Amino acid sequence: MAGVTNSAFRRLCRRYGAGLYVSEMVNARGLLEGGERSRQLARFAPDESPRSLQLYGTDPATIAAAVTSLVDQDLVDHIDMNFGCPAPKVMRHGGGAAVPARPRLFGHIVESAVRAAGPVPVTVKMRIGLDDDRTTFLEAGRLAADAGAAAISLHARTAAQRYSGRARWSAIGELVETVSAVAPGLPVLGNGDIWTAADALAMIERTGCAGVVVGRACLGRPWFFGQLADAFAGRPVRPEPTLGEVTGIAAEHARLLTEDIDERRALLMMRKHLGWYMTGFAVGARARRDLTSVRTLAELDDRLGALDHTLVVDATTAARPRGTQFGPHAVTVPEGWLDADADAPPDQRADALVSGG
Predict the structure, then answer these.
(1) CATH numeric code, 7-239+327-339
(2) Rounded distance, CA 95 to CA 142, Å?
(3) Burial degree of 290 (CB within 10 A; 0-12, 13-18, 19+)
(4) Is the pTM of this model over 0.85?
(5) pLDDT value at position 178?
(6) CB-based burial, 27-54: b 16+ in 10 Å, e otherwise
(7) Which distant-in-sequence residues (6+ apart) come within 8 Å of 329 by Cβ?
(8) Reading across the β-sheet that carries 188-191, which strands appear in turn?
(9) Could you tell me which of 256, 252, 302 has the C-alpha nearest to residue 277?
(10) What percent of the chain has pLDDT over 90?
(11) What is the set of active-site residues?
(12) Could you report the per-residue pLDDT of 261-296, keeping only the tens digit for each?
């Protein structure tokens, strides 16, 4: 969700329902070294609460120092540790989803984060494993529980799958049972192929997980969190909005972005979002092309205003997968990385190259 879950989008989503709206992934080493990009990603608007920061790192000492800094400066209310990045450029250096494959290192990282965070809860997100033959999620779940994680989230795909195929929800159920045996009451959250509110309820019913984590389903659909809130409260789920409603939401999204960055960059960033907002609407190829070339807020308003605001999406649109579906791909980790007794972190390139989970 890099380039998506910035402050503007989080604030927009929060209007539709309660939940934890987590930041883009922030590099622990970048925070410590004073990188401007890392500092920007770690900022929250005054009205954001709780402030949930997604942190990445591969060295326990670096993680501890970054968490200590965040907590001492009162910059966060929740830290989510990401061990799910499947990018080959990260994993071949031992980062991302490769970390749980070195269990002693994984446990040390989580323990260091929890100890440094003090009263601030630390949660962990991970994948099933490297591939179908090298699963890590059950041992990692036990280690995270032993280290004091406040919750554990599982994206029910392997790193080899990336975002392709189907999420294996049965693995979430396995993790629930494993964690319950060592830490009764510790929440396990499920992630993967939740495209509708009905999917979220089905996952909880089938796996026994305590809640869900949503990623790609909210691309161009910030109102999805309102639908989830309806479903969990037992209310009728609100319908997908008309195009007129969507254009107003998209315009507000763009304006929120301009509060944090200049208008030119904000509109460049909006281009991908506009494609997602238009998913399922029969606006025509030319209108889509025109929207993805807007340069100013005024131009955006003109082009959104020219659309047929009475259009609605068909019944299958909400359940349609969004965002990247890349995969599968072969997984490469450093030589000797699967040594069960090793606990050394990877080289610094694993931190420097991280791009998301």
Answers:
(1) 3.20.20.70
(2) 20
(3) middle
(4) yes
(5) 98
(6) bbbbbbeeeeebeebbebeeebeebbbb
(7) 88, 160, 162
(8) 22-27, 52-56, 78-83, 122-127, 151-155, 188-191, 211-213
(9) 252
(10) 83
(11) 85
(12) 999 999 999 999 999 999 999 999 999 999 989 999
Residue 126: both structure tokens together: 């991970």
pLDDT for the residue 334 = 93
Per domain, the residue ranges of the chain are 7-239+327-339, 243-305
139 contacts 167 by C-beta, under 8 angstroms: no
- Kindly report the three-state secondary structure assignment for every residue of the chain: CCCCCCHHHHHHHHCCCCCCCEEEEEEHHHHHCCCHHHHHHCCCCCCCCCCEEEEECCCHHHHHHHHHHHHHCCCCCEEEEEECCCCHHHHCCCCHHHHHHCHHHHHHHHHHHHHHHCCCCEEEEEECEEECCEECHHHHHHHHHHHCCCEEEEECCCCCCCCCCCCCHHHHHHHHHHHHHHCCCCCEEEECCCCCHHHHHHHHHHHCCCEEECCHHHCCCCCHHHHHHHHHHCCCCCCCCCHHHHHHHHHHHHHHHHCCCCHHHHHHHHHHHHHHHCCCCCCCHHHHHHHCCCCCHHHHHHHHHCCCCCCCCCCCCCCCCCCCCCCCCCCCCCCCCCCCCCCCCCCCHHHHCCCCC
CA–CA separation, 242 and 276 (whole Å): 14
Average pLDDT over residues 303-316: 92
pLDDT for 2? 79
The verdict on whether omega for the bond into residue 241 sits within 30 degrees of 0, i.e. cis, is no
Structure token pair of residue 298: 């005024």
Phi-psi region of 224 (alpha: psi -120 to 50; beta: other; left: phi over 0): alpha
